Each structure stands twice: as C-alpha cells, then as structure tokens.
Amino acid sequence: MSEPFDPLQESVAWVADTGLFVACGRQQNNKYTALERFATRNDLTFVIPQRVYEELGGAPDRSTPGQTPINSARDAGWVRVADEPDYANSTVSRVMDDVRSYIARSSNRDEDQIEKADTALGAVAATLLDDGTAQSVCIVTTDTDAGEGVVAALATQGFEDRILYRNGFDLIDQIT
Hints:
- The chain has helices spanning about 20-25, 30-40, 50-55, 70-75, 90-105, 115-130, 145-160, 170-175, and strands at about 10-15, 45-50, 80, 135-140, 165.
- The chain is α/β, with parallel strands linked by helices and about 180 residues long.
- The protein has a five-stranded parallel sheet with strand order 3-2-1-4-5.
- α7 links the parallel β4 (about 135-140) and β5.
- α5 packs antiparallel against α6, α5 packs antiparallel against α7 (about 145-160) and α6 (about 115-130) runs parallel beside α7.
C-alpha cells in the first residue's frame, strides 16, 4: 500500500502522542536527540494535544523542578501544544467518538476505559484538517489501535486521502 502523500511536505501537520516522547526517553538519550534532529532537519513541528502535554509533565502543577523534556522541545520550537479542541464542532465530536469506538472494538475494552489522550489525537487532527490549517496530517503514535482509529475516523469524515499513521517505534528506529 503506498502512502497517499509525502509526510515531509510543508503542508503536513505531524500530530504526536505521549508514547512517542516516552519511547525517546530523556533529553540526553540518543533517541530524543534523533527525534529533535529529525524535526529540525525536516522543518516540522510536532503538534501535541493538551492532554498529551499534561501527561508528559508539562502542566505547571505536575512539573518537577527544572525543565522537562517536553518544555525544552516546545521552547526550541519543534513541539507545539494544540489549542483545546472545539467540542461543539460536529466533525471533531464525531471523530472523537469514532476513535473511542474503534479502539474499544480493537482492544476488547469498554469505551469508558479508553484514554482521553487517544481521542484527543483525533480531535487535533480533525481540527487542523477541518479549519484548513493543514492540508494533510501524519499521526505519530506508539499505540497501533489509536493510530488506526484516528485514520479510520477521519476517513469517514471525508479526509481519507489526507491522513496517515506512522508507528512511533518505527519512526524512532528509522531515524536512529
């Protein structure tokens, strides 16, 4: 199966989840350094949902003293925290519901056990596509069910040729 678009094009937004950054480890880790170098060389910014930012320790009330890796990445400009999604936007709401349902079916879990950060990936991608901020979106997650769920949910909203899933572990292996 060929990719519907080149994910390194300028008009592609890269939406990433917690697992990508956790898999890279600390700032001194060669995987973290490789991810930063990849973003810088390709002039791309990873967009993360607010929930992902909070999970990575970016929330002020949860931060440890000193600079967290996610804040360093944000300050350096290769990570951006997305605005809170507009839940009143029917496309965003449907995508979130569809992602939750997809993950529940794929993983044999109740929908109320699905992490809100997983559905937030879909919400951010839907927002970027729906408002025209991005022509295409590349979802980067270490959670296959979440990645495939976002692609499936956005496809039902008419974005099938504008969404791509990259496994975060595969990306890390490729760039290190």
